[in-house]
Design brief:
single chain; Gyrase A, domain 2; Topoisomerase I, Chain A, domain 4; 4-stranded antiparallel β-sheet
């Protein structure tokens, strides 16, 4: 369940809030000499201003490939290249776009709630099998099922809290 929450945090970092973050470029992969390479492994990414990101490739010959990959990633960012560094200005979000991002946050949150419930289901099945095989008593099984449910409630509450915070962050103008 910890892994599900960590994955949820990573997915939330990739959703735009109208401010520049290094996590925005995580999904960008560049065709670097025939190998698909994550941008973060071939360039230094910085956020000098809230609405601006800079990408400084370690190999200047990869500049065009990086620009092409950023455009192809369909993030709504337009790269401007000065020969040494690529600047990306993050446009402000309009109300409609903000609502789309909030909807995306809700979808990702629901996927992760389902994942937590699947972990609960596997744990419950395991406890029931242990009871059937007489490895544990009925009381131990009942206590185990209650503990699993407590963990499930805790992790779903964490996902809900993270989702609510991200939604609030997106809707701030």
């Amino acid at each position: 369940m910890d892994l599900v929450v960590e994955d949820f945090k990573r997915k939330l970092a990739n959703i735009r809030t109208g401010r520049a973050t290094v996590g925005l470029l995580d999904p960008v992969v560049v065709d670097y000499y025939g190998t698909m390479t994550p941008l973060s492994q071939m360039a230094s990414i910085a956020v000098p201003e809230p609405q601006m990101m800079t990408v400084q490739p370690w190999d200047a010959s990869a500049m065009a490939a990086i620009e092409k990959a950023i455009i192809a990633a369909n993030l709504g960012l337009n790269p401007s290249n000065d020969g040494k560094i690529i600047r990306l200005s993050v446009p402000a979000l309009n109300e409609e776009r903000r609502k789309q991002f909030v909807k995306q946050v809700h979808e990702v949150a629901e996927e992760h709630r389902v994942a937590v419930r699947n972990v609960r289901q596997r744990s419950n099945d395991s406890l029931k099998k242990m009871l059937k095989d007489k490895e544990i008593s009925e009381d131990e099984e009942r206590n185990g099922l209650e503990e699993v449910q407590k963990f499930t409630n805790t992790y779903i509450a964490k996902i809900d809290e993270l989702s609510k915070n991200k939604e609030h962050e997106i809707m701030i103008v």
